[in-house]
């Protein structure tokens, strides 16, 4: 059969299957949007794969919040949307698909713009499929006063490619033998035939502050960088190990003479009505940026190597003390196993290990 006929049959079959699925009860069990009545949020909720963060304004009664959810068509949620609950501790919600076959548990956390500032990567949270099997891991940090940070990554995007991999073989995974205890391992992966079809040839291992929402049509906008921060970051430090993959590729084709390298950076920026977060299209170019910290001497190293990166304030930029207090500034720390992985340039097998990271800051006097 000619190639064009194969392609035509493929898309015809896809359309027919789509029509059949439209007629059947919906099998999805997702929270699509979240709001909280009253003027209690200092910005939009952060919705991840199975976690939601509610950034609260100071003075909000955290013990009496009534989040309202929009679900995938036909799905139901327990407890019901709009029920008042005490968010002094994270609360669980279970979404059930319209066909009743699938359930998904969400953890909803309410925070007063506080995040931990030391990161040890000891708490790896399993993400499971609809049958309860572990697909991959996310990471969460907490501190002694109750601040929580849910790290984001693009494992969900790699899962979409259909490449068969064990949880520890995903681009972002936990690993033993850290500087202390465990660490995080970031590995650039080949995305297989579907990835090539979508022109997403590799998936760099990444870990960042913010959220990830799968967006096949605009991959660079899938990563939303930043979480509220009510201090001025001054530097961040930690330890890394790195080994570049053997074959560097661009658009899936080997390129001789090029070698992969990792990226470690952080940004601090102001939010406003138009800019709620930064993404892969503007993380280094947005006029809302205040300061940037970025490694300039990354190298291959088999030993744990310390980095200590100062935040460099951009020309003409200042911080408004009232906006800072109100939680109108975001910070994002970002790690990637391939510096141009977002453009699908890099080497499969490039591996970056990260451990014992600390964010330093000051307050406005």
Structure description:
The chain folds into two domains: 31-112, Immunoglobulin-like (Sandwich); 118-362, Jelly Rolls. The protein has helices spanning 3-23, 155-160, 192-197, 321-325, and strands at residues 31-35, 46-47, 51-55, 68-71, 76-78, 91-96, 103-111, 118-119, 124-128, 134-142, 148-152, 172-175, 183-187, 189-190, 202-203, 206-212, 223-225, 227-228, 232-243, 248-250, 253-254, 263-270, 289-294, 301-310, 312-313, 329-336, 345-347, 351-362. It is globular. Strands 9, 10, 11, 16, 17, 18, 22, 23, 25 and 26 form a ten-stranded antiparallel beta sheet that branches. Strands 8, 12, 13, 19, 24 and 28 form a six-stranded antiparallel beta sheet that branches. It has a five-stranded mixed beta sheet with strand order 2-3-7-6-5, with no helix packed on it. It is built from four helices and 28 strands. By secondary structure, it is mainly β. The protein is 10% helix and 40% strand.
Are there runs of 5+ residues with pLDDT below 50, and where? 1-22
Task: Count up the helices.
Answer: 4
Beta-strand percent range: 35-45%
Coarse structural class: mainly beta
CATH architecture of the largest domain: Sandwich
Query: What is the CATH C level class of the largest domain, in words?
Result: Mainly Beta
* Relevant CATH superfamily of the largest domain: BT2081, beta-jelly-roll domain
Instruction: Supply the number of structural domains.
Output: 2
Give the mean pLDDT. 90
CATH topology of the largest domain: Jelly Rolls
CA-atom Rg in angstroms? 21 Å
Distance between the termini: 74 Å
- How many strand units? 28
Please state the overall shape, judged from the principal axes of the Cα atoms: globular
Helix content: 10-25%
The largest pleated sheet is described as:
10 strands, antiparallel
Pfam family, one: PCMD
Protein name: Exported protein
InterPro entries: PCMD, Put_CMD_sf
């Amino acid at each position: 059969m000619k190639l064009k006929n194969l392609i035509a049959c493929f898309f015809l079959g896809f359309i027919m299957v789509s029509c059949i699925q439209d007629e059947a009860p919906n099998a999805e069990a997702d929270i699509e949007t979240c709001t909280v009545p009253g003027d209690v949020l200092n910005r939009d909720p952060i919705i991840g794969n199975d976690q939601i963060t509610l950034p609260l304004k100071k003075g909000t009664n955290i013990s009496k919040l009534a989040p309202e959810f929009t679900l995938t068509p036909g799905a139901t949620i327990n407890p019901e949307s709009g029920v008042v609950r005490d968010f002094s501790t994270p609360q669980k919600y279970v979404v059930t698909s319209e066909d009743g076959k699938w359930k998904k548990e969400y953890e909803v956390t309410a925070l007063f713009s506080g995040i931990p500032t030391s990161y040890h990567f000891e708490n790896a949270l399993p993400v499971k499929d609809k049958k309860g099997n572990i697909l991959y891991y996310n990471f969460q940090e907490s501190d002694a006063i109750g601040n929580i940070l849910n790290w984001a990554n693009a494992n969900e995007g790699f899962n979409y490619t259909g490449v068969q991999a064990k949880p520890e073989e995903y681009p972002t995974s936990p690993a033993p033998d850290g500087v202390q205890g465990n660490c995080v391992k970031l590995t650039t992966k080949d995305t297989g035939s579907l990835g090539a079809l979508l022109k997403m040839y590799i998936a760099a291992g990444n870990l960042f502050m913010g959220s990830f929402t799968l967006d096949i049509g605009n991959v660079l906008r899938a990563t939303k960088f930043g979480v509220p921060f009510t201090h001025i970051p001054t530097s961040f430090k930690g330890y890394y190990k790195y080994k570049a993959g053997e074959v560097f590729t661009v658009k899936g084709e080997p390129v001789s003479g090029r070698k992969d390298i990792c990226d470690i950076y952080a940004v601090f920026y102001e939010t406003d009505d138009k800019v709620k977060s930064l993404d892969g299209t503007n993380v280094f170019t947005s006029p809302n940026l205040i300061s940037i910290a970025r490694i300039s001497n990354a190298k291959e190293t088999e030993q744990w190597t310390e980095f200590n990166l100062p935040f460099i304030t951009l020309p003409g930029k200042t911080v408004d003390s009232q906006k800072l207090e109100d939680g109108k500034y975001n910070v994002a720390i970002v790690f990637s196993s391939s510096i141009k992985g977002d453009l699908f340039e890099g080497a499969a097998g490039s591996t970056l290990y990260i451990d014992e990271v600390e964010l330093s800051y000051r307050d406005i006097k």
